[in-house]
Each structure stands twice: as structure tokens, then as C-alpha cells.
Design a protein that fits this description.
326 residues, alpha/beta, 45% helix, elongated, binds iron/sulfur cluster
């Protein structure tokens, strides 16, 4: 499983001052699951150490300029970023982690300086990051800094594993029946992102127009990738848990049902992490031999050792509940 990374994040000494920005989560945890494909556009055209560069708001738009001698290097950086994205076409990446704040790699809120002496504004996007967004609009992208947030981390990891699963599935020359099976296994994971997306995907799978399989798969791919790029919330996840509990409603005692609902409410109130609820649901699923549930990716979306659902902060409320903004 290949993951693109800004080179400096995995310890390459390619920053302007000859240092790296090694990130512990990436190098200690993620390296167990991914093969990293490093990119450093700056290192490919400038020597190290080198003068720093910055985004500057000019009369010709936002340009990339060296800090001391004010050389405009925008075209050089755009050209080498284009070379990098062309290389990415062959790398079959399932996602990319970019270095925050960089005028080359920063995904958002990069400082944009003014030509005259005015305060900078955090509103820019790095040149390479912009090229990736333009060329791979559905590729999972994050910055290393944002991955310190357990909610963004859980969403991103869930997204890249689902992305990988989808492409493995598409590469296996699937039939219509295979598509139904794949789609069914993702029912509750997609529900936890957006119920309407599951409905859209269901209509594609139903294929009322009797389109050829290649067309259906292509349409399914785009809608699936859009669905998994959405963020999960406590309310959507709680809703999925209620759906799953429905499978045992007539099989468990009144006391067991009350205990289960109490556990789910504790998750909703941020007292216990999601994994505690999932563990109980898996026990019931096994006890009552619920094959349909056991195949649900929602219950096992990524290796359990990542322990992303063990943190109560991995889930947030959405705006409609008015408790906390995402
Ligand atoms: S932020 Fe990007 S361009 Fe800058 S050193 Fe890291 S990988 Fe290279």
C-alpha cells in the first residue's frame, strides 16, 4: 500500500536549512502499514541549504519569491511540480501527507506576504499541493499537523484504507454480482459518512439503464470516492450503531438491550470511545451468527492496532446538533 509523503516528513534532510521535519506518527506508526513514496519538488531544482521562498501577493497574482534576493521562482516550481504529479500517475498512491505551512507543499492556510509592508495572511496553497489537488481531486490528502487531531486522523486513515480497497476491487475485473457484494459490505461505513451517498451508490448499482459494467464501475468509483471523503460525526455514527443494534433486537433480553443502549449513549456523550461499543456489537454478531454484519467494513475499517477508535476525541458532533462545530 503506497502513500505519498513530503520527503522532509520522513526524515530526509531536504529543507532549506539542510534539516528535516521528521514526523513521529508517520515514521513510527504509519510506516508499519505503508510504503512511502517521497517527493520534494524544491530539492529537485534548488540546492540545500538554500534561500527560503515565500508566497507573495503581487499585481500578477500570488507568486513564489525568494526571501532575500526577491527572485521569482514560480514557473520553476510549477514546472517541477508538474513533473512530480506526472510521476504520481504511475505510483498508484492511496493518499498523500503533505508538509503544512510550506509554499510548496502546504495544503491550506499557507502564509501569503504582501509586497508592501503589510501583515501576511494565511490563505495560500503550496504550488505542489495545488497541482496534486488539480490532478487528483479524489485522492485522500492531509497535512501532518492536522493529523494530530484524532478526528481528522481517524477520518483520513478510514478514507485511505477504503480508497485502497476500492482500487483493489476495481482491478479484479469485477462482475455485477461482485459489485453488489462490495457495495453491501460498505453499507454502514458509507452510512456513517452520509446516508444520501449510500442511496446514490445504491441507484448506480441497481443500474436501471442497463449500462455496461465498465460504465457502472466508473460511475460507482467517483461517487464512492466522494462519499468516503466526507467526515464522520457522532450523530451519523450513533445512527449506524442503532441500525446495527436492530439486528439483535429480538434476539437479546430486555436487560441486554438496555445495557447496549446505555453503552451507546455513553459513546454519544463522549464518556467512552467507539471501540467499546463496537466490541460489544461484534460479540453479539458472533453469538447470533450475523454473517451480514460480520462482513461490514464499518466494524473493521483498518488494522485494529492503529487504535484510532480508542480515543473519545476521534468523533465530533455535527453542526445540526449545535454542540460543537466541526
Ligand atoms: S515541505 Fe516539501 S518542498 Fe519543502 S522540504 Fe519538505 S518536501 Fe521539500
Amino acid at each position: 500500500m503506497k502513500l505519498g509523503v513530503s520527503s522532509c516528513l520522513i526524515g530526509t534532510m531536504c529543507r532549506y536549512d539542510g534539516t528535516s521535519s521528521k514526523d513521529n506518527f508517520i515514521t513510527n506508526i504509519l510506516q508499519k502499514y505503508f510504503e512511502f513514496v517521497p517527493y520534494c519538488p524544491e530539492k529537485m531544482i534548488f540546492s540545500t541549504p538554500r534561500e527560503t521562498i515565500r508566497l507573495v501577493n503581487t499585481k500578477d497574482g500570488i507568486r513564489v519569491v525568494t526571501s532575500n534576493d526577491k527572485r521569482d521562482v514560480t514557473d520553476d516550481l510549477k514546472n517541477i511540480s508538474q513533473v512530480c504529479v506526472e510521476q504520481m500517475q504511475n505510483d498508484e498512491l492511496c493518499g498523500f501527507i503533505l508538509k503544512s505551512k510550506s509554499p510548496t507543499c502546504g495544503l491550506e492556510r499557507v502564509k501569503v506576504y504582501q509586497e508592501i509592508n503589510a501583515p501576511s495572511e494565511k490563505k495560500g496553497v503550496g504550488v505542489f499541493a495545488q497541482k496534486i489537488k488539480d490532478n487528483f481531486p479524489l485522492l485522500p490528502l492531509e497535512e501532518e499537523g492536522r493529523l494530530n487531531d484524532p478526528w481528522l486522523r481517524e477520518n483520513f486513515l478510514m478514507q485511505i484504507f477504503a480508497y485502497r480497497n476500492l482500487f483493489e476491487f476495481l482491478n479484479s475485473s469485477p462482475s455485477f454480482n461482485d459489485l453488489v457484494e462490495f457495495h453491501t459490505s460498505y453499507k454502514y461505513l458509507i452510512y456513517s459518512k452520509s446516508q444520501s451517498s449510500y442511496k446514490t451508490l445504491g441507484n448506480i448499482v441497481a443500474n436501471h439503464e442497463k449500462s455496461p459494467i465498465e460504465e457502472v464501475l466508473n460511475e460507482y468509483k467517483v461517487s464512492f470516492l466522494e462519499a468516503i471523503s466526507q467526515k464522520g460525526t457522532i450523530s451519523k455514527t450513533y445512527n449506524v450503531l442503532l441500525h446495527i443494534l436492530g439486528y439483535f433486537k429480538k434476539l437479546i433480553s430486555k436487560e441486554e438491550k438496555e445495557e447496549m443502549l446505555e453503552t451507546m449513549n455513553e459513546f454519544k456523550e463522549g464518556i467512552i470511545p467507539l471501540i467499546a461499543v463496537i466490541k460489544l456489537l461484534k460479540i453479539y454478531s458472533k453469538r447470533f451468527n450475523q454473517e451480514y454484519l460480520e462482513k461490514q467494513v464499518f466494524l473493521n475499517p483498518y488494522p485494529k492496532e492503529l487504535a484510532l477508535r480508542s480515543n473519545v476525541k476521534a468523533y465530533k458532533w455535527d453542526k445540526s446538533f449545535g454542540l460543537e462545530e466541526i
